[in-house]
Design brief:
Blueprint (H helix, E strand, L loop, with lengths): L1 H21 L10 E2 L4 H16 L19 H4 L3 H11 L4 H28 L1 H12 L2 H9 L3 H18 L4 H15 L3 H19 L3 H17 L1 H13 L26 E3 L2 E3 L7 H19 L6 H16 L5 H6 L14 H16 L3 H18 L8 E2 L3 H5 L15 H9 L8 E3 L3 E9 L3 E10 L1 E8 L4 E5 L2 E3 L6 E6 L2 E9 L3 H32 L1
Antiparallel strand pairs: 1-4, 2-3, 5-8, 6-7, 7-12, 8-11, 9-10, 9-12
Helix pairs in contact: 1-6, 2-4, 4-5, 5-6, 5-8, 5-16, 6-16, 6-17, 8-9, 8-10, 9-11, 10-11, 12-20, 13-14, 13-16, 14-16
């Protein structure tokens, strides 16, 4: 009878748990679209990606008609997992307003469930339920959801707990494969945060596993699997950065939130310690209380010469490192580690106190006796919910779909994700000026015929005097210029240009993925098929055993 009671009580608690983590996002269904900082950028990109998929280009390295027709390599330079989901859902028939709500609801729900699954095996049922609620009811998550509309960060947070879970269960081949898939989804949701996450995963694997070398090897293979699955994305990105001589922008001190703003700051922004903030960067009072208790607990254990789990010490180090990277004192580190530029903003380190405080919640609750556990758990849930109740406002945005359909006449698809910012500014100023596909900018001559297709353009040009012809395409590795039968493979200027001698010329420009992109993509495809075969083999084996 007791077992039946426990079974039903757990089911009721899980239902309440799901309702509590869904509740903050109910208001998104009261508006047409969510008016977030980055919302329009993602709308334009999802639409452009969808159009590309319909044309049979499943992985567009260059959006040929973006950025006023000059093209945009945005999907070569940034993550796209959430964008693919949005495009596929619309192709499947879902309306855009619903899709953009699901892109908020799904990752938040998935993240809560993922953290519960991970921590349940470490600290038990009740601690993991409460920790997951703490993980969802946190100011920075609501900032990402309702103010910034930062779906990349939300999907990163959705997949991250699953990677931890599969690392903990890497003794089975199935979990190594699934862990690799979730780590790949995480990388393709936000490569900057994933870079930091991978360092954490490696440290975590060593802390939890050493000296079990065989199991540690499995965990490292899991992480390598994720890297191979996304090699098509991150390897070209690194090489593009080198080829295009991209240098990270200096970190803007405006994005270092004042220390006091981490404790309390106005949700809509304002002045804090003489610095104007466009939004709140608070960690959350309840979460700071949890972190404070964790610090006291660890300090007491160390002073008493009692053992503290290495994982908990690592969590504490992660928290204080996050605070360090959130402050201007860390500027030299930001400036001297180029890969950190992929994070763009120091305030993104607010994600890690979220993870530390929620994990610390499960650990601290697991130290309590049963009766005390239930009381503290209920009180903590109430405190977290009440404290964050005013952070759930959603502003409405109306969108004319015709404006989205004309993405090629805007800079939104490309934004500033590639090194043509100065050129884009000039184009934006003169966006109503009609541009020809081929323009003679020096010398003397005439464009006799001109033709533009998706990934190539051609022209017949008669030059009376040697000069330069400019093509309405941004340079990006893969573009080739062919004059007659002569191939010009490199044209590393902002806009494609070619010098033509006096006479009549047949000119053609075309895009083709560079060899290193093709190889990286092939490796990712092969890795995907190997993973699929192993999973299929596992399913067949399990099915045959049941029969």
């Amino acid at each position: 009878m007791a077992e039946v009671y426990n079974k039903w009580s757990r089911k009721i608690i899980l239902i309440l748990f799901i309702l509590i983590i869904i509740f903050p996002f109910i208001r998104i269904f009261t508006v047409n679209y969510i008016d977030g900082h980055d919302f329009l950028h993602y709308f334009f990109r999802i639409y452009a990606l969808e159009e590309s998929i319909k044309q049979g280009v499943l992985l567009p390295r260059v959006i040929h008609d973006g950025s006023y027709g000059y093209g945009s390599p945005v999907f070569s330079m940034m993550w796209a997992a959430p964008l693919y989901l949005g495009a596929v859902l619309h192709i499947a028939g879902l309306p855009y307003p619903l899709i953009f709500k699901l892109l908020i609801l799904l990752p938040n729900l998935l993240g809560g469930v993922g953290l519960y699954l991970w921590l349940k095996s470490k600290y038990g049922f009740i601690p993991s339920v409460v920790a997951s609620i703490v993980f969802i009811w946190v100011p920075y998550r609501f900032l990402d959801s309702f103010i910034r509309y930062s779906i990349g960060e939300l999907f990163f947070l959705a997949f991250l707990p699953f990677v931890f879970y599969f690392i903990d269960h890497a003794e089975k081949l199935r979990n190594v494969i699934l862990g690799g898939i979730f780590s790949a989804l995480m990388i393709y949701s936000h490569q900057g945060l994933s870079l930091v996450a991978y360092i954490i995963f490696i440290v975590y694997s060593f802390i939890e596993t050493w000296p079990q070398k065989k199991l540690l090897t499995r965990k490292l293979i899991l992480l390598a699997n994720g890297l191979l699955l996304t090699l098509f994305y991150w390897l070209p990105l690194l090489l593009y950065t080198k080829i295009l001589h991209l240098k990270p922008d200096p970190i803007d001190t405006r994005w270092f939130p004042p220390l006091s703003s981490l404790v309390r700051s106005k949700w809509e922004g304002g002045f804090v310690d003489g610095q104007y903030l466009i939004m709140s960067f608070q960690i959350g009072l309840a979460h700071l209380l949890i972190l404070f208790i964790l610090n006291i607990f660890v300090l007491y254990r160390l002073i008493s010469h009692k053992k503290v789990p290495s994982f908990i010490l690592a969590l504490l180090v992660l928290f204080w490192l996050s605070i360090f990277f959130l402050q201007p004192i860390s500027t030299p580190v930001w400036d001297n580690i180029p890969l950190l530029a992929h994070l763009q903003f120091p305030f993104r380190f607010l994600i890690f106190p979220m993870i530390v405080s929620s994990t610390a919640t499960a650990f601290l609750l697991s130290q309590l006796k049963k009766k005390t556990l239930y009381i503290v758990a209920i009180c903590l849930i109430i405190v977290v919910v009440v404290e964050n109740r005013n952070h759930l406002g959603v502003a409405n945005k109306d969108v004319n779909i015709r404006d989205i359909e004309t993405y090629e006449e805007t800079y939104f698809v490309g934004n500033d994700m590639f090194p043509f910012r100065s050129v884009m500014k000039d184009i934006e100023k003169n966006k109503d000026f009609k541009r020809d596909e081929f323009t003679i900018i020096s010398g003397k001559g005439k464009v006799i015929t001109a033709k533009r297709e998706d990934y190539q353009s051609s022209a017949t040009i008669n030059m009376d005097k040697r000069g330069i012809v400019q093509i309405r395409r941004f340079y990006f590795p893969g573009w080739e210029i062919i004059v007659g039968n002569k191939r010009i493979e490199s044209n590393n200027n902002f806009i494609l240009e070619v010098v033509l001698d006096k006479g009549k010329h047949l000119l053609k420009v075309m895009y083709k993925d560079p060899l290193f992109v093709q190889i990286a993509t092939l490796i990712s495809v092969v890795t995907f098929f190997v993973n699929s075969l192993l999973i299929g083999k596992h399913i067949i084996y399990k099915t045959s055993n049941k029969i």
